[in-house]
Amino acid sequence: MAPLIVIEGIDGSGKGTQAQQLTERLAATGRRVQLLSFPRYRETLFGHAIGDFLNGRFGQLNEVHPFLASVLYAADRFESRSVLTDALQQSDVVICDRYVPSNLAHQGAKLEGAERDELLRTIERIEFEVFALPRPSLVVLLDVPVDIAQRNIAAKKPRSYTDKAADLQEADAGYLQRVRDVYLQLATTDPIWQRVESVRAGKQRSITEIGDDILGRVLPTFA
Question: In terms of pTM, does the model score above 0.85?
Answer without folding.
Answer: yes
